Amino acid sequence: MSVKKLTFVDKKSLNAIALGGAVLGSGGGGDPYVGRLMTSQSIGESGGVKVIDIESLPDEALILPIAMMGAPTVMVEKFPSGNEFAQLIPLIEKLLTKPVSAILCAEAGGLNSTIPFVAASKLGLPIIDGDAMGRAFPELQMVTFTLGGISATPMAMVDEKGNGCTFDTISNVWTEKLARAITIQMGGSAMCSLYPVTAKQCKDYIIRGSLSLIHHIGNIIEKHSFNAYQLLVKELNGKHLFQGRVRDVERRSEGGWNRGIVKLEGTGEFVNRDAKIDFQNEFLVATEGDAILATTPDLICVFDANTGAPVTAETIKYGLAVNVLGLPCDPIWRSEKALDIIGPRYFKYDIDYQPL
Questions:
Q1: Is the pTM here over 0.90, yes or no?
Q2: What are 94-141's pLDDT values in tens digits?
Q3: Which segments of 79-125 does DSSP mark as H helices, in order?
Q4: Contact, 189 vs 75, CB < 8 A?
Q5: Quick one: which of 212, 343, 238, 248 has its CA closest to 301?
């Protein structure tokens, strides 16, 4: 697969990035439309954001990941105010010993593939072509940095009302637990800066080129609409798992996440067959009867069969005609250590991970 290197993001690039981010979000990461609106306004004021390789920075340079935390359904109804960064960045900078050199996407999915561009634009900083997941995962310890023993703290969090707090925790799992509890009290969503890392640490654990990949995927969807999923299967070495219509959606906000099940009835070559997809913010497990179609950490991606647009877990609805794709995760997630924190058994499914 040939992916054109992304070096600069302006308002024209944003739609492709939002679309591609929704694909790698695997149903989660928040609605990219919200992030695109915020980013478009910010980039309209600054002119754009430079995208750089991590290799261009000295080892000691400080990189700051930015993300929204919470239930994506809440984020659709409770937009960020746009003023969070004015409070968030000074809050985290008080805890750091040197200035920030660049911004990083904590995950390559949905809202969190676009929101960091707002921070980069407002601060006049470049953004790294990469991220710490290669997709979206529901819990904040589920990043490549955790595999390297890198702490999520110091971490800062603010809400749209102006409340702010910082964290210093004993483990990344405890950071998730405490931050999730605060997020619930903040109304279900909050803006975060976490995992402040040096460029050297990034070079060891970052998933490189994910912003360029997001942009490439978005361009394919824009150009090929409802046939895009067929090209993505070939280009990303994926698999067409199912084609059908949404028969039912069970969805609930619980513990700071969106949880639920999507039930599908087959159409086309999948007629007279049924499938279901379980999700916790992201699509985690796809099954057809007793057969496992795909599981986390591989990506389960849903596309509107009529428009070709990716469909998120919070927007999927009854009657929608869809195509379901399985895309392989980055190889870093296939180790035993990685599967302990993002594999199906972590999410209480009594099944072993079987790579696509």
A1: yes
A2: 888 888 999 999 998 878 888 899 889 888 999 999 999 999 999 999
A3: 84-93, 115-123
A4: yes
A5: 238
